[in-house]
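Regression test attached.
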Amino acid sequence: MTTTLLVTGATLADGTRTDLVVRNGRIAELGTGLSASGARVIDADGLTALPGLVDLHTHLREPGFEQSETVLTGSRAAAIGGFTAVHAMANTSPVADTAGVVEQVESLGRRAGYVNVRPIGAVTVGLAGQQLSEIGAMANSRARVRVFSDDGTCVSDALLMRRALEYVKTFDGVVAQHAQEPRLTEGAQMNEGVVSGELGLAGWPAVAEEAIIARDVLLAQHVGARVHICHLSTAGSVEVVRWAKARGIRVTAEVTPHHLMLTEELVRSYDARYKVNPPLRREEDVLALRAGLADGTIDIIATDHAPHPSESKDCEWHAASMGMVGLESALSVAQASVVDNGMLDWDDIARVFSRTPAAIGRLDGYADGIAVGAPAEFTLYDSAASRVFDTDALAGLGRNSPFLQLTLPGRVVATVHQGYPTVLDGQLVDEETVSSAAAGAWAVRGCRG
Amino acid sequence: MKHLLSTRDLTRHEAIGILDVAEDMADVQSREVRKLPTLRGRTVVNLFFEDSTRTRISFEAAAKRLSADVINFSAKGSSVSKGESLKDTAQTLAAIGADVVVIRHPASGAPQVLAQSNWIEAGIINAGDGTHEHPTQGLLDAFTIRKRLHGTASRGRSLDGVRVTIVGDILHSRVARSNVWLLTSLGAQVHLVAPATLLPVGVANWPVTVGYDLDEAIDAGTDVVMMLRIQAERMMSGGFFPNAREYSRRWGLDDARVDRLPAATMVMHPGPMNRGLEISSRAADSPRSTVLEQVSNGVSVRMAVLYLVLSGERGELS
């Protein structure tokens, strides 16, 4: 059973107005005055149609930490945020360091049906930084893993990182490095600077991030591999990546929505919702990250969605877990940080939130965006909306959003994944409907061989 | 005053007000009967997540001299050591009926988290949080300096123009932070002396001058030398300086240095002292040393703070 959809009056990222007909999971027609008999009609007047967002950095927590998030609940959080694909980080329990675990995560995602769940494989066994995990087995598994990361910890051993870059290259994959020199950040609680000195919190120096990035771009150049840098957070990191790109090194970099908007000043409250790794930095860093995103030094926005149960945040700063949820708020925060001030336009947003992250993750179907014949993966976004962002807007299990009570622009009205809606009228489509639509979509895909 | 969380958010006017109430409390302590009925029926909980006998008994003495009921809650051997959260502990104390919680905690900001939470309504007094602040220590140090300088004419006075040199582990010292904010807002000129490894990264933005050389600071002239405690674990694993001998030679207040100080220069130490490391016995026991005055003034200052937090306003004592 597949759905035919007729979307009327949408505005594409480039500003053109169009109707869309979706049939058999693909975009069948674009143009004005389209009709399709028996189709479900979605009125998109005044809405921006963006290609489905692809998150290269999501913590879905399952298996092992289901009190924080599951593949299903995280998928729902993604869909309500306009995402159609997420890359699930490997720091689960057991760690995603074998074909068995990544296939399990992938199949949970497929069953849930809200987004394409692409597992990320661990670089090292158990994220322990000692020995390469079974990268080839994960790459060749049903999950077809292409992104490998020990995110949460840094692959700090230089020789091991060199080997990882070389070995992953064998499978056309990429290592996504969590750049954090461990010795320089022992016990670190927040950005090291004026505020940490006053608050008496152990500092996390910018150099701990920048030194690893500098080392890794040079390693990538030396072995001819590509490398991806997770969550850039400092002005110096932007400079290092800019330098590397100018030398032709194949480096890509991401920035999170929260690092595009928030600064370390928030830590003065000791409110643990602002505790995150890498930490919130200075205003200068925020501005440099925005500029880096605008000039292409930073390739993508990725959420680092990191749900935690309330007891992990409802405590003193030292005891609190690091991380923030971000899927539900990502597009609104990006709009507030870099679109409404004119630094990026909606075409850029389509690039940094969809086309490029898909390309880095070797995820097919996103290269052409919203185009006839492309898989129907898109979201309808009301950029004129404004809302006080509160817990009602959170669809995952985590409530640890730093954006609660802030007025944010924009709202996702509908999301379409594999040709069926996962969000309609700003609300998630129910689990059963989505799951059975997903099963139907996979059956169609199977028939076509 | 609902809480006392830091000296950084005290205005000069508020700080002088607290010190003046502490003067009243000190007068009471010189009477034959040293007890006031002011806080009868109120419950003060000393919630100590770190060992600190000195600060705890000082608060206990202060509360008892104001006739409050005192409950001492030490984290060691309690449910806290079995994994109870700050939230649960706070809610338990609220259920018991604590009017004030005096909290010592190894995590910077824990008192502020408690004060901002809806776990407990009680007034919160920070008795030292991590490497953040120790506001009553700052207040008792300011009180001691003022008392030495102005004696019975201290009331209403600031510390305008007083030169204070703070020496030692500034990086990890909550005492140093509370003193920097408080003494400077009272008008003192604060100079910090330490090896660069023991100065916080943002110290250039503090309202102080900074140097590495203790001899230079002594030669430049100072009214107060405040020595900070050096903690052994900082040298062992932290690698902040090579060894105790080298530290002592460069940043210790040894006999030769103390002999070069003018007679009126005060030598302060928050205790407990490492005699022979950061301070020599002669310096600690000399008439210029205020170490024991700091202890007794600590009770007066904590009486004032408890009184002000529980009465909710600054008022004259009868």
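Expected vs. actual: identical. The interface with chain A takes residues 8, 85-87, 105-110, 112-113, 116, 129-133, 174, 177, 200-203, 205-206 of chain B (CB under 8 Å).
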